[in-house]
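I'll show a sample.
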Amino acid sequence: MARPKLPRKSTTIDMTAMCDVAFLLLSFFILTTKFKPSEAVPINTPTSVSSKIAPEKDVILISFNKEGKVFLSMDDKEKKRAVLNTVNVTRNLGLSGGEMKALVDQPFIGFPIAQLKQQASLPSEQLKGSTSPGIPARDSINNEMMYWVSAVSNVYQGQKKPNLLVKGDNEAKYPTFKYVVAAFKKYDFMTFQMVTNPENVPRGSELYRLSLGGKQISQ
């Protein structure tokens, strides 16, 4: 006697709950993501063999291009507001609440202190590093990085120091870097990181041997 055939039924899985979880996770990551400070101008960084990754939180980025224009970016808006307020008070700039908000919302500081009102009047989409004069830092007489680093030191007093990143163009002149670092030293910021373009360690070099535990590499 033949065995009766049972009807085959396709299996269905209700994905509604899974979709809800996926959208909740997506919303969470979007709301909690903290973006790096915007770069003022494209910079061709020098190469290095360092594998250390730059920090992504509580970052103060000082960048300068090959023309020597210096820009300051911060990822923490509350700290940026406090730094701007310190400069506003100590330099008697008379910035209004609206101008302060505009500067906080803009991606970088790229004007001399006396022209911050002019920068505040520019919409963020019109603010470009290529057309901004930059923060003066080309000589010891007019090194406005001193004022900015002083303000940073004031805001972070008694707190963990920020992550200072310096990103300079490979064709930039040394004096620009020199006067930026001079401002760091004056206010006891003795540790900062250079942003570079990483490359592989050359085979056969001392650093290459150290990376392999000091073993001699046969050629």
In short: Residues 58-198 form one domain. Confidence is low (pLDDT under 50) at residues 214-219. Helices lie at 16-32, 77-90, 97-105, 116-120, 145-155, 174-186, 206-211.
